[in-house]
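Researcher: Next entry in the queue.
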Amino acid sequence: MSPLSPRHAPRLRSALLAFPLLLVALSAQAQSTTDQALLQRLEAIERRLGLAPAAEGDATALADLDQRLRVIERKLELQAEEAAAKAARDPVVSLTAAKGLSVKSPDGLEVKLRGLVQADGRHFIGDDKVPQNDTFLFRRVEPTLEGTWGPLIGFRVQAQLAGDTATLNDAYVDLKFDPRATVRLGKFKAPFGLEQLQSSASLAAIERGLPTELTPARDLGVQLQGELSQGRVNYAVGVFNGAPDGRDTATSNADNEFEYAGRVFWEPFRNAANAWSGLGLGVAASVGDVYGAGNNLLPRYRTPGQAQFFGYASNVAADGLHRRFSPQAYFYRGRGGLLGEYVTSEQTVRVTSGANLGRRDHLEHKAWQLTGSWVLTGEDAGYRGVAKPNHPFALDEAGWGAFEVVGRYGVLDIDDDAFPLFASASASASEVRAWTIGLNWYLNANLKLVTNYTQASFDGGAAAGADREDEKAVFTRAQFSF
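Model: Structure for this entry, 482 residues:
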């Protein structure tokens, strides 16, 4: 390269002197553009908050910008305080698959809406002599409203919409003085049968077993209940209008007599993490006087297929002491479970007309059952069924839900002294023996499909002293609950 000529030197010096000035000018222009963008963003925030932007001319002054930012900060604080106050005043509404719809207020009020729908199919096999209709039906449609009204009051209202008429299952109020002492008033399940007290949504089989035919269902009364020993002991004792075996009470006290019932259930290892933590042992009893005839006072007993197999003669009435007793237990460990109960029901009866007018006797009927279950897919078995499958069924995923197999055997024995004076041997059987096998498919926490095969054999119940025809049936159920 040739050396710089003298005539080019002044031009080079001028360029070198102008370069810093160019950098300063470019930097000032960039800073001005940045400041303008920030200013526009600040004005947009002010407009969104409902604040008036500063007057033109002093908008970029540092003191003005600081003041404007303080106003924005205070505005945001006020909005946060207002939102917190509104949240404290407004109820919280939630909808979940497990708990249904609930509304909870800040002052301790909570209302929950739950539901149960059971759609059944029934098919009877070989019912030539005692025909029964194959049918589809709604077994239960039960909307439930429950909740708490502050720390003292709990409540539950449940309707039964299945069938031709709507009825009221539960309608009670709990006065929750203490977990050890709660008073329940209204209509609810009497404290007696182990499987009777189990939720309809949690049953191992489609229908309850034979001992439930001897237990009271829902009754009207008042009950003291509670938990002791850190929840290991549950007790309930109450006074009721009185319900016939296997049925709900009438809407009023039909014979002006009361029934007294109590139950204690003990789970000795409930809070222990050992193999016996799923053991529960209980005993229940009821006693009272019953006088009068009719379905509200004297029972009728049903087969597993829900057909009547025993009933008192039309000229027989209850005439005094009605007493029940039941030891009961269950044991659940891992995927397996066992439930068993034994029930006796005693009733004094009297002939009200005919050649044997005035004849009385004290009859004692007995029933027992044992139900076993095993969850094939590994979930834990329990008194409330499989709470939630580990892998819920999904069309686009690998989950198939939970599968559970169930087996049950039970017997109901009618007192031999009931025949022929108080019941007809050609119309009522003296004993029924029944077994059931089933498969439960829990698709998810809300949907359950069930299939049962049940078979029952009888002693007596047909003309000329013959045995009633065996009952063989396939029951299916689709259940939705929340």
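Model: The first strand starts at residue 92 and ends at 96.
Researcher: Noted, moving on.
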